[in-house]
Amino acid sequence: MNERVLKRIFWTAGTLLFVVGFAGWWDRIANGHENADYGTIVPWGLWIAMYIYFIGLSAGAFLISALVYVFRVKRFEPVGRVALFTALVTLLLALLSVWADLGHMGRAWRVIANPNFKSPMAWMIWLYASYVAVLAAELYFVLRRDLVISAEQGGPKGRVYRVLALGSKDVSDKRAGRDQRIVRVLASIGVPVAIMFHGGVGALFGVIAARPSWNSGLFPILFLVSALASGGALLTLVIAVFQGGLRESRDTIVALGQLVLGLLLLDVLFQISEYLVAGYGGVPGHVEGLKLMFTGPYWWVFWVWQIAIGTLIPIVILASRRRSNPYWVAGAAGLIAVGFIGLRLNIVVPALAVEEIQGITGAISSPRMVTDYFPALGEWLLTAGVVGLGLLVFGVGEKFLPRATKDASHVSV
């Protein structure tokens, strides 16, 4: 399958998902949470799971870009700029997902205007704002010289590049060296910010003592390792389709595949440790959550989606002789990226489906007072729309994303 066919599939999928998403957004805006399937016992569902999934993709992609711009790993130079752009797009999708989950979407600005810094959520939102600023600035200085050079061409692209160059016209070596230093400083600042905000998402879950399945000091570390593995897998898939594709990026794809394999195995180790410690400790709420995930109504999400599709099959591919074949590596990366959605669902839903007060669902007769949760059609449609928007935004942006040239090689530090 050549690059042209892959791009045609990409654009078709993005357009279809974006279009069907209108129905989900209309239902959410017109009817609020009325038609969503979460309720009193399980107040978070698919949208929150997708929020932490997209946030992980963003943090992981950014941290992998740091291998280029902070640690100067030449092997991953072709990934640098596309990793930064991927981080920006997936952050947008994360914020859209959590915005849809808010009871009053119009009040989202209050967390910025009236923060309570005793709350981990307030810190997390302010870290997001800092992360966006650093990420956008770094991407600009990575691309600045290429934007100025590309602005000289005619047509619509040239006009877009002139706007994006923000009036800059200097392509001298002196200015190039200055850009290089700025990029490294911004990337160095961004690394701890990305670690703090995604570790903060894990801490947001970990500090909730009322939910034993989340109340673990390991959660911030788990979220970071998962972010690196999922973000690396997404970048591998992106490089296989864009920026030269399988034809030009064979070595980069294979190298990323081995990096992702190591990160995935590390994530599996942490997950197993969490399950074993919880099971041996025998805390009722935690054990019940694990039972729901392993043998209860959510077994298929764990065993089929997370373990088979997202873990075992990719590990077999990436650890076999096929690890040198970019087609197989890209396929394994796609399975890992999809499999991590199952992992995020398993973090959010089973922990909430355990009754905090034993027997409360039988004592109160209400359609919202149930532990069974499966996303309603509107939840799936809205999520499809968010994914479709992300594909289209990335696809359009990638068309205007200048490729690294010899004249602008300074941006690949």
Characterise this structure.
By secondary structure, the chain is mainly α. The chain has a single domain (43-359, 403-411), classed as Formate dehydrogenase/DMSO reductase fold, CATH 1.20.1630. 72% of the residues lie in helices and 0% in strands. The protein contains 15 helices and no strands. The chain has helices at 3-31, 46-69, 80-101, 110-113, 120-150, 155-164, 173-206, 219-241, 245-248, 250-281, 284-294, 299-319, 326-352, 360-363, 377-399. Helix 10 (250-281) crosses helix 12, helix 10 packs parallel to helix 13 (326-352) and helix 12 (299-319) runs antiparallel to helix 13 (326-352). The two termini are 33 Å apart. The model is unreliable at 406-413 (pLDDT under 50).
Number of domain units: 1
Uncertain spans:
406-413
Name given to the CATH homologous superfamily: Formate dehydrogenase/DMSO reductase domain
> How many H/I helical runs?
15
| Total strands | 0
Q: Sketch the major β-sheet.
A: none
The general outline is globular
Summarize the structure.
The chain is an all-alpha fold and 413 residues long.
What brief labels describe this structure?
single chain; 413 residues; mainly alpha; Formate dehydrogenase/DMSO reductase fold; 15 helices; disordered C terminus
Q: How is the secondary structure organized here?
A:
Elements lengths: L2 H29 L14 H24 L10 H22 L8 H4 L6 H31 L4 H10 L8 H34 L12 H23 L3 H4 L1 H32 L2 H11 L4 H21 L6 H27 L7 H4 L13 H23 L14
